[in-house]
Each structure stands twice: as structure tokens, then as C-alpha cells.
Amino acid sequence: MTRVLHVLDHGLPLHSGYAFRTRAIMAAQLAAGMDVRAITGVRQGTTATGANPEIVDGLTFYRTPGRLGSVAGLREMREIGALADALERLCENWRPDVFHAHSPLMNGLAASRAGSALGIPVVYEIRAFWEDAAVGNGTGSEGSLRYRMTRSLENRAVAAADAVVTICKGLRDDLVIRGVAPGKITIVPNAVDLNLFGSPLPRDAALARELDLGEGPVIGFLGSFYPYEGLADLIAAMPAIVEAHPGARLLLIGGGPEADALRAAAERSSAAPAIRFVGRVPHAEVERYYSLVDVVAYPRKAMRLTELVTPLKPLEAMAQGKMVAASAVGGHRELIVEGMTGTLFAPDDPAALAAALNQLLSRRDEWPARRIVASEFVRRERDWAGNVERYRTVYQRLLERGPIAASAAAA
Fold this sequence. Notes:
Blueprint: E1 3-8, H1 17-31, E2 35-40, E3 54-56, E4 59-63, H2 74-90, E5 98-102, H3 105-118, E6 122-126, H4 130-136, H5 145-160, E7 163-166, H6 169-177, E8 185-187, H7 194-197, H8 205-210, E9 218-224, H9 231-244, E10 249-255, H10 259-268, E11 275-279, H11 286-290, E12 295-298, H12 304-308, H13 313-319, E13 323-327, H14 330-333, E14 343-345, H15 350-361, H16 367-381, H17 384-387, H18 389-401, H19 403-410
Parallel strand pairs: 1-2, 1-5, 2-4, 5-6, 6-7, 7-8, 9-10, 9-12, 10-11, 12-13, 13-14
Antiparallel strand pairs: 3-4
Domain Glycosyltransferase subfamily 4-like N-terminal: 17-190
Organism: Novosphingobium tardum
Pfam families: Glyco_trans_1_4 (PF13692), Glyco_trans_4_4 (PF13579)
């Protein structure tokens, strides 16, 4: 039985797309017969010691004690050291066959430091480049000193790992351009836990009345309100959509840094009566809100982050039997085939967004067939139960090399 320790920035019981992907991976690996546990870094915000695991949703998490520092650079170096030390202490009582570290880069560097000392091979999985995520979140700028330093450390984490996993082709291709050998990289794409999202609920009529949605159609977004999501463009498109489809409603579910600005933009809009903000909802309630939505929209802005990284949410929407409309950035084009698994429109263009949604809403007779195509795509190619076997192949390749070879490669 292969023993795998996932090395994480954060995890359950915290809720985020990062935590939910991790949960799906771990649950699928356990179901596939692996012995799987995880350790979270200092950013989890726990006072527990690494020797005392926490069980959440049947999954085992160890924690790294400590507090975040205040000086950039020194703070990250201390995080790496604390996590590496926690890994070594944990391995005194339970020794994994593989460290599986997930971005950001501090986890990869910590795992490689501990792996080199212990002779344990390291898989480093990149879900997004940290420097590009900072730009997308509005906390960094492309080309700045901090951006270049972070990129350099990312390259170091990739070089130190024995194998690298990315979640999509865009990230893989960027690494190859940087000089990483293609054979070192495996793509394990985003997928859906069909035990959670594979059985859509019927429309929740009581909730629809509570939110005053009328007969619809309902356009929805479920997720975090970051600048790169382009939700201001969706709000700007609503007057033209309501003009063509007077019953249309926009349902925005979630929260984040853009929440106040988006509410202000909605209040100024001539379509304000058609726009609903719900705020964050418990994860257990998400399917109730999906049941209200006819079309899920993802108007992401065009930038490095969105061109390189595929999101998870469109796959969940497909699994829920929803129509998907998304901007034609690179991450969406990896998931969506125009007219088959979804509708694509030009990014950063509210008029193009409105035109695409109006056309989609006018062709409801085509929806049943398109729903079947999209849901079958998810079941066939993006179900975690099958997708997780890609990891087993990576692990086995490293373990066949033996601990000495793996340790030397990580050094």
C-alpha cells in the first residue's frame, strides 16, 4: 500500500477551491487503496502540534504550529523552515513513501528539504504560479521585484522536486519554456467528485421565491469575488440582457475583495432590480443554489493567470447539468468546446458577453442535448475516481528509482 503525505498551504476545515480539490484527491486516493494523510503549513492558523492529527470528513490532517512573521521574504523563509521541521518530526512516527507537495512554492521547497534529508521522493504539484495569482488578486504587479523573486523561487522548487504535476496544459507549457524537461511534468487536470456534484437537485421553488427570482432565466456565478473573475463585466452586460429577456435575473453567490465595488456597480445599473447578491453560503447548501441557475457565467479577465490556469467551477456546473458561458481565455478554452460543452465569448467586453448570453438564452431548445454532452465529458474525463490514477503512475515511477536515487535528485 503506497503511503502518501500531502503537503499543503491549507486544508479542511477551511473552505476554498484549494481545500476542496485536496479533499477530492485524498478521498479518491483512499478509495483507491492508498494510505493518505496531509500536513498543512503555518498559514492554516492552528495552535495544534504536528504530532496530534485532526480528522475532518474522514481525512487525516497534521498541523504545523507557529505564527506568520511580518517581514516579507524572511516570513516565507521561516515558513519553509517550520514546515520542513514539522515534516521530519512527523516522519519519526509515520513515514510516507512519497511527499506530495502542492503550491505555493514554500511547500515544494519545504518538502524537498525534508525529502533530501530523509530519502523520500517529492512530487511538487502546481495549481497556479504564486506570482501570477498575486497579480490576479490585486496584491502584486507583473514584472515587479517581488514578482521576479517569486518566479525565481518557483523555478528552484521545480528543480528540487523529483517530479512535477500541473493541473493544465497552460502551466505545463510555461514550465517547458522555462527549461523544465517535458518528461518531468505530468498533467493531472481539475476534476469533479461526482459523489458530491453528480446528482443535481430539482429547482428549489421556496428558495427561488425567497430570492424573488421570478420565472427567470437565471444567470449565476458561484465563487470568489476577485478582480480577475471579471464580474464587473457581467454586471455591465445585464442591461442589454434584460432588454432582450425581461425576466432574466443575475444571481451572485460568494464574496471576496471585490464585493463592495460590485454591489456599488449593481446599484448604479439600470438593471439593478434584476441583480441579486447572496453572499457566501455553506458548502452543504451550494447544490440548492445551483438548482436555481440556468446558465453559469465565468467572465474572467485576460491575464497570465487566467490564460495559464483552468478553473474548477465550470466542471462542477457541467456536472450539475447547467449551461456554461465563459470568456475565451486560455484556461477556459482547455475545458470548453464552443457550442458543445459551453459558450465562449471575448474577454473584457461586456457587449460581447451580453450578445453571447442573449443568443444562448434564445436557443433553449438546444440545451437538453448540450447538457448531456457536457455532463458526459465530466463523467468520462473529469471524474476524480478515474483521474486520481494518474498520480499512482507518477508515484510508482519515483518509487521504482529507489530512495537513494530520489534523495539525490531532490538535493
